[in-house]
Design goal:
The protein is 26% helix and 27% strand. It has 273 residues and is of the alpha+beta class. A hairpin with a 2-residue loop joins strand 10 and strand 11.
Length: 273
């Protein structure tokens, strides 16, 4: 068994597991410095310390180095200034070299062993000369990392068409694949303006809500099935899974909305759901 804790490096994004090592009294909200493949990085503790069997831990489990000290905070502030300077300089060089790329964010590792520049682009970009400019200016390792537009939206944030904070910013850890089929199964109108997020891609909520819709559909009659209802026998024409109802066109031509729990299903062999 090892004592581990969950750490997130940004307000949004994936939660990573770290060995608490000799820092057993960590709690949610603590800011810590942890080991990563790239070097020491500052993160926020987002879970309580918990014991996990060794067989369920990542093979490359890294450790929490220490809590952030006042001295570390000073280093962080200086790193933020380096990031601002690096972003301004990089934007200037991108314009001067007329590179078809959009700089999104700059991240300076805690020990300044590397500066990472995140960007988006429609196609591959030859940024070798840009890297030379950045190395010459900042005298450290430079990495240019291309990201997708969904990650760009996560970084900038915003409000979705539902009026709430973007899911990718608020709580989603991973950006799962989203398909049009998911929108169809949720009875969404296939209007790009209705099913696309601020990033221009299909909304993330279509993916994380998909499993719930699939589960709910198992308990309702399929569209096109003939069933008995309190208003008479009719054909299912539409589902409203959130309300738990189905719309049925009965024999006199009227359309009625019936709660699934009130359906008179009759003989299941004759009227399969």
């Amino acid at each position: 068994m090892k004592s581990v804790v969950g750490v997130r490096f940004n307000k949004q994004g994936k939660v990573y597991t770290f060995d608490v090592a000799d820092q057993p009294l960590l709690k949610k909200g603590d800011r810590v410095i942890v080991e990563t493949e790239n070097g020491p990085v500052v993160g926020n503790v987002v879970t309580a310390v918990r014991a996990v069997p060794g067989g369920r831990l990542p093979a490359d489990l890294k450790k929490v180095i220490r809590r952030v000290s006042p001295e570390d905070q000073g280093i962080e502030e200086r790193n933020r200034q380096v990031e601002k300077e690096a972003k301004t300089f990089c934007l200037e060089r991108i314009r001067e070299r007329n590179l078809p790329m959009k700089l999104v964010e700059v991240e300076c590792l805690f020990d300044r062993s590397k500066i990472v520049f995140y960007f988006t682009a429609d196609n591959r970009v030859d940024f070798r000369e840009l890297v030379k400019d950045l190395v010459q200016r900042f005298k450290t390792r430079i990495e240019l990392r291309q990201i997708g537009v969904r990650n760009e939206a996560r970084i900038f944030g915003g409000v979705g068409i539902c009026g709430r904070e973007l899911c990718c910013v608020g709580f989603l850890q991973n950006l799962d694949t989203v398909s049009v089929k998911m929108a169809k199964e949720q009875n969404m109108l296939l209007n790009p303006e209705k099913i696309s997020g601020l990033c221009g891609r299909l909304m993330c909520c279509l993916a994380f809500e998909h499993e719930a819709y699939v589960s709910m559909k198992k308990s309702v009659p399929k569209v096109g099935k003939s069933i008995d209802t309190p208003a008479g026998r009719g054909e299912v024409v539409r589902h409203n899974l959130v309300k738990g109802t189905v719309s049925v066109k009965v024999e006199d031509g009227k359309e009625v909305e019936v709660k699934v729990e009130d359906l008179q299903k009759g003989d299941s062999s004759r009227h399969p759901l």
